[in-house]
Amino acid sequence: MPPAASAPAAALLCGEVRTHLLPVHQALDIRTAAQFLGLRADERVLLSERPNLYARSPDTLTGVDCPLPTADGARTRAVGTVAARAALTEGRVLQSSAHVTLPAAGPDRRRPWGEYLVRPGVAEPVGKLPPDAVADGVLGGGRPGDLDLGAIADGLLTRLLRHPLIDHRPPLRSRPTRLRWAALPAAPDEEPSLEFTLAEDHLRTVRLRVPEGTPAAEVAGLCDDLALHDWLLTTVVRLFDGIRPDTPAVLAALRPAVDHLLHLWMPRARVTGDLAPLWDELETRPGFTRQWETLVRRIRDQLALHAIPSPHREAELTP
Amino acid sequence: MLVFAASDKGGTGRSVTSANLAYQRALNGDHVAYVDFDFGSPTAAAVFDVPDAVRGTRERGLHSYLEGRATEPAVIDVWRRTENPVLRAWPNQSGRLVLFPGDAGGGEFATDEEALERCVDLLLRLNAEFDVIMVDLSAGRSYAVDMVLAATAHPRMRHVRSRWLVFHRWTRQHVIAASGLVHDEHGILDSGVARGHDGDALRGSIRFVRAAVPDPDSALWSRVSPAQAAWMQSTDEALRRLAAEYAIGDSVVLGVVPLEPILQWREQMITEEDVLATQIANKETLKALEEIARKLTDDTCWGRP
Ligand SMILES: Nc1ncnc2c1ncn2[C@@H]1O[C@H](COP(=O)(O)OP(=O)(O)OP(=O)(O)O)[C@@H](O)[C@H]1O
Ligand SMILES: [Mg+2]
């Protein structure tokens, strides 16, 4: 898509990501993934096999003309389009995400639609944008009728889950997560930064400061990656819920994680340039990879324990 | 596993009993969703004691979701939002217990193709997330019953297991009505087959629950006169024969919930606390609920009898 020459600088980028286990018995291979994510005939699915299997749909656009969520209740309308896309990692984890770029100001009246369509993924405020209030509003969730990026991401997910390739036989039960993000431009003398919060009900929020001019798609890529790894952690931690350790039930509960999830950990696989250092912050606190490694060790220990038949138990079985 | 809770008549104990079954499963570590498809009178919130959704939610209830007015239905985390103090102190090893409430002021509505697709979307998503999904259906041959019969016959749902509980009270009228709901022309079996279900498989996935059954041998009736006792005994036996004659005899009964004074006064969860600590509930009631909850996933209790 041609970059719009007249695009004013973005005052706020925001988005929401939904992360799901793809409900199929067998992970999709790269060819099937391409078929699955081919949302548009005119654009190809992005495919990559290194460092892991990854497929991403072309962007779909949703036209919007609605109030923006604001923390202080101020009413700002925005008109334009929201970009949404879906990505599949190792044919197993499906993410759908929507994002939008909001410039600092727009004309006082709505323009003809054609003028919005030349700048996909941009919604112009009618008048001036209060970026901080909208960032808070997006992260906190809006009122009914406000711009709802989660609903757009979810709509795409629903559409994909109706695809005939999906047999709805997930190898394990898991809970989807949602991650909302808002990125404001960093001041010239300010370092990029990232603040990750676990909010209620499997909702995560990420507040970022990014170098001025960072494209929304790049921030969305970072947030997809964050969401994927947070989902992996959450899902695997939950496998231990409700099972008593050191019982054979542990085997049945943990086995699917070994078969389907443990190989998916690969932070920063697709995070580019300026934003890559933001991951490092998460590695020190809360220490994503450290947590993951501890979990993996715990799983391996449990499996090892139960894979070795206890001589005591065998003795009991012989009459 | 999907579990549909149906009844021919209203006021049979369908909602209260199925909510208690959901609670029992969650206590045992399952992740459980309770879905209020009783569009006429969504009341599950009252049973779970979640006041902010007692009369359904204002917007984003299941009704709004199915009609496409809400992208995602509202969800209530019962453990966190309930005002029942025993439920609030839920034990560590329990699973999630969430309620998908109906809409406030909803009513029965005709379902079109798109509502059906959305129903399938929802059930599939829940099935990927929860171990047990308990669906409370409006009484009688309602749109809700029709919709889930169509949904479970949908090709996208071919790998999803579902079972039916048909609730009825222990009277002549209720026995006949419950049998009719399943076996009569246009009953669940008939409509199910018309929607593409295999008749035998569907029949094997339906069990009956007798609710609020007075047990003549219970201490509750220990003070009745010998004449009354004899009458109760013989009526109970006559009802058993009637049930068998109407093809809803013991072989297809998943459980019997005794008449429980607490539940006659108040729609609520029966907890261990009520039986052991305060002793306001009968232990037989709790035992019956635990037993039915266990049998929901015990394959030996299902299939063609
Ligand atoms: N085992 C029981 N003993 C005594 N009363 C009971 C028992 N089970 C349920 N009840 C009571 O019976 C009444 C009707 O129960 P409930 O609301 O669950 O019925 P329902 O079939 O869901 O009705 P509706 O069709 O109106 O939704 C309630 O007051 C409930 O507390
Ligand atoms: Mg009811």
From TrEMBL, chain A:
Name used for this protein in its record: Uncharacterized protein
Automatic annotation (TrEMBL), chain B:
GO cellular component annotations of the record: cytoplasmic side of plasma membrane; cytosol
GO molecular function: ATP binding; ATP hydrolysis activity; DNA binding
InterPro entries, sorted: CobQ/CobB/MinD/ParA_Nub-bd_dom (IPR002586), P-loop_NTPase (IPR027417), ParA/MinD_ATPase (IPR050625)
Protein name: DNA-binding protein
Native source species: Streptomyces fumanus
Short name of one Pfam family: CbiA
Keywords linked to the UniProt accession: ATP-binding, DNA-binding, Nucleotide-binding
One biological process term in Gene Ontology: negative regulation of cell division
Residue ranges annotated for the CobQ/CobB/MinD/ParA nucleotide binding domain, each copy included: 4-119
